[in-house]
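pasting input
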Amino acid sequence: MSGIPSVANPSETIVLPKKLRTAEIAGLLAKIGRLTASGSVTLDFREVEDFDNATLAFLRHIEHCLPGVTVADVPEALAQAESSFAKRPPGTCWPETPAAPPSGSHAGRFFQVMADKFLARVQLMGRFLAMFGDEVFHVGQYLRKRRGVYPGETWNQMFFMGYRSFPIVCLLIFLVGVTISITSVQQLRLFGADIYIADLVGIAMLRELAPLMTGVILAGKVGAAVTAELASMTVLEEVDALRTMGVVPEKFLMVPRLIAITLVVPLLVAMADVVGIFGGVVVARVSFGMLPSAFIREMITSVDWTDFGWGLVKTVVFGWAVVVGAGFKGLTVGRSAEEVGRATTESVVLSVTMIIIIDCIFAFILY
Amino acid sequence: MAIITAHELTVGYGTTEVLRDLSFAVPEGLITTVVGVSGSGKSTLLKTLAGLLPPLGGGFDFAGRRVDYLSDASLRDLYAKIGVLYQDGALLNGLTLYENVALPVRMHYPELPEDVVRDMVFAGLSQVEMAASAEKFPSELSGGMRKRGALARALVLDPELVFCDEPSSGLDPITSSRLDDLLLQLKERFKMTLVVVTHELRSIERVADRVLLLGDGGIRFSGEYAGLAATDDAFIRTFFLRKARHDDT
């Protein structure tokens, strides 16, 4: 049978066939493994005429990794080809010999790794905060001098961030309003306190749910889009091009987005408050016939303008966190297309994490 | 007179040195080609000279003044005097070609009336024969058109020096040749200085006044293009041998 080497001598000498390419070598390796388990093996290459890179690599493999195998009668052509074959780096036999265990105790190594990771995070956070500070400066400078930003770009961004986000924000907040109302009204009914559904929905929406949900939706929609766009621009050298035109990319690209988010987020969250409360009104009307006017009258006994106002302030801070986080990830991306996807994912995770941390800080300060 | 003078300049990324201790000069009013095999550090050197990558050692003077990477004013001064043609053009995809070329003008001189900006942009686009495509977006242009458009953007503020990063890469021979004509025109008609990073031997032969050949982490040859023929360096001969064979066919 062609291609399968024959065992000419049962005393462990294998005469290799004329054709010794990748497929033949693959079949041969298992046989060598079996024979070397019981002693040494000699591979006779005298008949080999047809070979390829795998044959050359196989010769190197024998030399470096198979101490029990001897090579005999290598033809001149094969020997010449082998001598000009690329040198292999040392220590690459397969299966690989296990690396020497690292020095130091397990606990020491664990703390070393943790300390390195912690320092890397601190460094990253420092760069992020520096960028945040720079952006505050750039926005202030733009508002004073009105230079360094492309005319009309803020309107484009407002359209994208506000108008395009409006339907999804309304839909999701309405459903959240309906869900918390349905869940709460059953519990309140046990105590005959159905009417307090209005207070509960009002407080929850104005103080927490509308700002938080709007922030999270913006992180997913706006944050991801901003990172993907800026990261693509970085990879395509558009950011470098801006810089060498004397344009500051951190200003040119970020200021319109920051101004846009500052202007549209209050409108979005105000609409989200209305729609979320409307969800509660619908549930109250359907489940126990409460009139919308009664719902509103009851709600305003427990909420006031400060709840609404702080909700707006919180969402503007969330918006800035989303846009600066997205810009940071987009502008610090590497040079490959793969990193654009990774940066986009990281941007959403970073934004949502920041939103929840900021929300927690606000909760401590305000309530 | 040299527009750029490098003093023991070391360039690279992070802590990895790509080119070490380079000392050379780029004379004014000529085309200097930076050549070398792939990975020899041509684009890294260009990024450093264009103010995008801080040097790892040494430094360079631009128009007689040392470029300080830690000083925004020094970098702004450098950016105001250079234009860069990137390998793929790097036109902003969200803007039309007209808006791309107008961008540097609007950013630096927002007080200029729109009709002046328009005239400047169309003068630049006509120079590269792209005026008819002014309202197209970069995605609607071919590779060669994008590069010509990007060249118009690099030239719109009349820079003293234009860096071109592999202007011929990915282009057919005719478009490549037209781009070479444009570069020669810029030198001859507008007395502009150009630094062209390339490994296209035909293009080097056609446009280069001076050659900076990079290899083995340093400069293998720096001098006039005509001087290459006299060198005995095996690397240089091998690098340019391809040209001789190419010409024979």
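fyi The radius of gyration of chain B is 18 Å.
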